[in-house]
Amino acid sequence: MKTTVLPAVLLSVLLAACAKPTARTSAAARAVAAVQDSIVGTVTYRERLALPPGAVLRVQLQDVSKQGAPATVVAETTVAAQGRPVPLTFALAYDTLRIDPTNTYAVQASIESEGQRLLANAAAYPVITRGNAKRVQMMLRRTAE
């Protein structure tokens, strides 16, 4: 009787031990599967404008799939202009798990200073899905004052 109880107890202990790591493992597997990728590009403008010393370039990856609804921000980065001439370069990292291959994504860029938007893109710059690249060359225009 002792020999049949011991294997049963060991088996139940092993099953219990395996059950807890499975929940952790799936979370760990999701974390590992969260692959970072990036969109790289340049931003320029035609206006004869010297950027103020504190100007920053703000770039967002947006899900623009829903017509008539506000875009959902998937990722964002800010780059200090630091008096550099255009074109300004950027690399926008994003989590690939947040990308739905059936959705449409676009990059939005603006140059801001002291909370005011000075320049922004007027045209759409689609990226990632539907055959679009992950490299963009963006043209910004002066915003209405």
In angstroms, what separates the terminal alpha carbons? 88 Å
As residue ranges, the low-confidence spans are 19-23
Tell me the total number of β-strands: 8
How helix-rich are the residues, as a percent range? 10-25%
Q: Structural class of the secondary elements?
A: alpha+beta
pLDDT averaged residue by residue: 84
Radius of gyration from CA coordinates: 24 Å
Shape designation: globular
CATH class: Mainly Beta
Task: Give the H and E element order.
Answer: HEEEEEEEE
**What is the count of DSSP helices, taking H or I runs of 4+ residues?**
1
CATH topology: Immunoglobulin-like
Using the 3D structure, state the CATH architecture. Answer: Sandwich
Largest sheet: 8 strands, mixed
**Proportion of beta-strand residues:** 35-45%
Count of domain modules? 1
Short description:
Residues 1-19 form the signal peptide. The protein is α+β, with helices and mostly antiparallel strands. The protein has one helix and eight strands.
What is the element layout, followed by pairings?
Layout: H1 2-33, E1 36-45, E2 56-63, E3 72-80, E4 88-95, E5 105-113, E6 116-121, E7 126-127, E8 135-142
Parallel strand pairs: 1-8
Antiparallel strand pairs: 1-4, 2-3, 2-5, 5-6, 5-7, 6-8
